[in-house]
Design goal:
Layout: E1 2-4, E2 24-26, H1 32-43, E3 48-53, E4 71-77, H2 84-98, E5 102-104, H3 108-114, H4 118-123, E6 127-128, H5 133-139, H6 142-152, E7 160-162, H7 168-175, E8 179-183, E9 198-200, H8 203-215, E10 220-224, E11 230-238, E12 241-254, E13 260-267, H9 271-284, E14 288-296, E15 302-308, H10 315-321, H11 325-333, E16 349-351, H12 353-365, H13 375-384, E17 391-392, H14 401-415
Parallel strand pairs: 2-3, 2-5, 3-4, 5-6, 16-17
Antiparallel strand pairs: 1-4, 7-10, 8-9, 8-10, 11-12, 11-14, 12-13, 13-16, 14-15
């Protein structure tokens, strides 16, 4: 493991043996939610260390949180995809040397790697800011999540499991093309990266996607495409009680189906999504931060899509709306009283410009597929959003280096020669 100082980080002189302690180690520094966590906790004076896999740290500066003025220390870790055991061992070693109080992972890979180390971290006086192993087992498995939803009477898309290719004709007959294929788990042990939901428009695409999911060690679920808007409820749970909640609608995502939201807006806690979200999370036993995602069908009925048992990529919208989920997560994990807001602002729009540019590019390639729009409409809505959204993910007036790093990474991606 290499530990590196950012321009604002404390750099320990070699050979001094100085051991600084940290209030929190935030992993997955390349993600927007980790950067938001670093800023939220650093601004209140907490001492923050940040970690990321070497494979995610490139010269363009894709490990965004490394560049934050609030990162007191940054460290490069082994690849969690290539060797999750080595990744976890280095995290535990850092906690042992530096007396870290809380570890917050933001991606499924880091979460799966660290779950077996929970007791080791606890013995070192450190809390892994995640729900119990039993709750995570259910929340991270779409099959088991849907079983709980069915028992509770929560609506979800009609679902058929595909165990072998011979099951495909029955699915095609039931749903017709296009339909959606989902992996039962997003980050199975054999997968080199997170598995994404895909839409398929013919048998060739369906067979290819099924084989890819199964070769990665995931089961396959088929569902009809729900064409309504995407909505989510973010929750902070303590002892089965809701300490904070906010909701949003995702106007655009990248990838188009099941991807990260690139444009979202805060909405009221609509009863037909808030009530089932709370009931589901309580039944699973999730604690800390989580997000429950829904998508409405053509009739406007909300259908459960999935549960994220962690801080999600929509965190910027919650923060700008007045719900500081990172702070409350840290309070919960460190055993302090959790103080949630009485309410939040509605109609706040937040945009991830890098992701929205990717959506614009991908939409052109997806002409005629689910969740695609005409090229003219895509360009018009993309341009018009500059007049509507006041808040850009990763951009903070008092902490500009991460935004500049993302700008460099975006420029490099745009200028990369095509083969």
């Amino acid at each position: 493991m290499a530990e590196t100082g950012t321009p604002s980080a404390v750099i320990e002189p070699a050979g001094t043996g100085v051991q600084h302690s940290y209030d929190v180690l935030i992993l997955d520094a390349s993600t927007k939610q980790s950067l938001a966590c670093v800023r939220s906790l650093g601004r209140i004076g907490l001492r923050v260390a940040v970690g990321e896999c070497a494979s995610e740290c490139d010269p363009a500066g894709s490990a965004l949180a490394f560049h934050s003025r609030y990162a007191a220390r940054s460290l490069v870790l082994p690849s969690v995809a290539a060797d999750p055991g080595a990744f976890a061992a280095e995290v535990v070693s850092f906690v042992r040397r530096h007396r870290v109080r809380v570890v917050i992972p933001a991606n499924d890979g880091a979460i799966m790697a660290l779950i077996p180390c929970r007791e080791q971290l606890c013995a070192l006086g450190c809390t892994l800011a995640l729900a119990s192993d039993a709750a995570l087992d259910v929340a991270n498995d779409k099959d088991r999540t849907l079983e709980v939803a069915q028992w509770l009477g929560i609506g979800y898309p009609r679902t058929m499991r595909i165990d072998r290719l011979d099951d495909l004709p029955a699915v095609v007959k039931a749903f017709q093309f296009p339909f959606v294929l989902k992996p039962t788990v997003s980050f199975p042990p054999e997968a080199p990266a997170r598995l994404q939901v895909v839409d398929v428009i013919d048998e060739v695409e369906a067979v290819s996607a099924i084989r890819a999911f199964q070769s990665a060690g995931a089961g396959v679920l088929a569902q009809p495409w729900a064409s309504g808007r995407r909505e989510g409820v973010s929750l902070l749970m303590v002892g089965g009680e809701v300490r904070a909640a906010c909701a949003h609608v995702a106007h655009r995502t990248s990838p188009a189906l099941g991807g990260a939201s690139v444009l979202r807006e805060s909405i009221p806690l609509l009863e037909d999504i808030y009530d089932p979200a709370v009931r589901l999370v309580r039944e699973i036993g999730l604690e800390g931060a989580c997000e429950v995602e829904f998508r409405r069908d053509a009739a406007g009925r909300p259908l459960l899509m999935e549960v994220n048992a962690r801080l999600a990529g929509t965190i910027e919208n919650a923060l700008h709306s007045g719900v500081d989920l990172p702070l409350m997560l840290w309070q919960w994990a460190s055993g302090q009283p959790v103080s949630g807001p009485a309410g939040y602002r509605i109609g706040v729009r937040t945009r991830w410009l890098h992701g929205d540019m990717r959506w614009l590019r991908d939409n052109r390639r997806r002409a005629g597929r689910p969740d695609s729009v005409s090229r003219t409409r895509a360009l018009a809505t993309f341009a018009a959003e500059f007049l509507r959204s006041r808040h850009l993910d990763c951009v903070s007036r008092g902490d500009l280096r991460p935004a500049l790093a993302e700008l460099r990474a975006t420029a490099r991606a745009v200028l990369k020669p095509r083969h």
